[in-house]
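In response to reviewer comment 3 from the previous cycle, which asked for concrete evidence that the modeling workflow produces usable outputs, we include below a single protein chain processed end to end. The sequence was submitted unchanged, and the resulting structure tokens are shown without manual editing.
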Amino acid sequence: MIQGDEWFMIRQLHREGLTISAIARKTGRDRKTVRKAINSTGQPVFKSRPTPPSRLDPYKDYIKSRMDAGMTNAVKMHREISAKGYDGCVTVVRRFMHPLRQSADAIAIMRYETPPGEPAQVDWTSCGRGLCRGVLKTVYCFVMTLAYSRMMYIEFTWRADTRAFIRGHINAFAYFGGITSSCLYDNLKSVNLAYVDGGPRLNPAFADFADTFGFKPRLCRPYRPQTKGKVESGGGYVKGNFILGDTFESLDEINAAASGWLLTVANTRVQGTTGEVPQDRFGKERLLLAPPSTNSAG
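The workflow returned the following structure tokens.
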């Protein structure tokens, strides 16, 4: 098929006096093709072939809406639309999502930058296993990160229940010397027992604790992990920078080491997103006064 620039070239060579055979040899085209181009009255217009329908077409609006809500994992997306009837492969889904993912990520990042003093972001992360009184048990790490300064507090424990969760808060507030006006959580049973009529039903013990200390519990919307991205990355940072490659003899030893790590590494390094040292930004935090039962630990 002759493209537009070649059509012009053939006609120009003919005007310069070359024969059809000479033009055919020069362009590598058949003489019939050259003759047709010379005798045509106008530049050929080629119609592109219509794009064949894709099995993904009925699900594209759903994919876009889920990406607008922050869900950018192609494997999970494939699983969701497969449940709705899609019978194609994940590669097609990934290819469709790829050009949309960057803008979706940028929106999520911009949406959740926070002012000083609110919120703190809180979660558990599991950190391997250890022996407790001769029994092999999971070691949990309580992580609280101040969203503005990225100051962290961590505490290791054998349990991840409501009592340990409340104790972690009290110790974190003491460490920071104050309380943020709100704390942000994933849908942990220690905080939210269930959703009733579209709203959360808070764990009564935790709701009473939050009311006593004067902060508001806030819950991430389901399937919106980037809402709590600062503490999610904090959990990964603990495992990748503090724990990786080390072993400890006891919970007391790991917590003592964690205190030193917070003081000399986590809160004094240049944080990747802000480009500043958390300890320096901490001076701008506007924390509420902690109840008399909590005293600053540094």
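Strands lie at 120-132, 135-146, 152-157, 182-185, 192-196, 199-202, 216-219. We consider this sufficient to address the reviewer's concern, and the full set will be provided in the supplementary archive.
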